[in-house]
From TrEMBL:
This is Acyl-CoA thioesterase. The lineage of its organism: Bacteria, Bacillati, Actinomycetota, Actinomycetes, Streptosporangiales. GO terms for molecular function: fatty acyl-CoA hydrolase activity. InterPro entries: 4-hydroxybenzoyl-CoA_TE, HotDog_dom_sf. Gene3D superfamilies: Hotdog Thioesterase. Pfam families: 4HBT_2. It comes from the Bacteria. Signal peptide: none annotated. CDD domains: 4HBT.
Length: 144
């Protein structure tokens, strides 16, 4: 399994309309923040999601797990990392750490993902190579 040495990260602001009645970030937004970080990582790696889809492939999440550690509240800034882990099968993992400005880990989001062949409606056999072939900076995707 290969893991990136220094994960990609994007800073986001917790907006007031994203908080719930307990005054912390609503759980659904953790998944949206993770999706945003992953999309930004893919773009930074030089992959055009539009070209990927036009080429008949679509990234899919098959499982998502959220672990909450500390609150994120309206007005907080959070850095969301994106680390890719590759095995030998049709799936791969993407892990996100949510760090407050002081470095405290507020949450972790982990996905089991794959690349869907949009015509066959099946996962591609080797998603690692499909991503590598499209990336100008494959190291951001954990690909050496």
């Amino acid at each position: 399994m290969t893991v990136t040495a220094e994960p990609f990260s994007v800073r986001m602001d917790v907006r007031v309309y994203e908080i719930d009645p307990q005054l912390h970030l609503n759980g659904g937004f953790y998944v949206q923040y993770a999706d945003h970080a992953r999309y930004a990582c893919v773009q930074a790696a030089g992959v055009s999601v539009e070209d990927l889809v036009r080429g008949g492939l679509g990234p899919v999440n098959l499982e998502t797990v959220i672990k909450y550690h500390h609150e994120l509240r309206g007005g907080d800034q959070v850095d969301v990392t994106c680390e890719w882990e590759w095995g030998g099968g049709k799936t791969y993992r993407v892990r996100h750490a949510f760090r407050r400005a002081d470095g405290t880990v507020a949450a972790e989001v982990a996905h089991v993902s794959g690349l869907l062949d949009l015509e066959a409606r099946r996962l591609v056999a080797d998603p690692r190579e499909a991503w590598r072939a499209r990336a100008s900076r494959p190291e951001l995707l954990g690909l050496d």
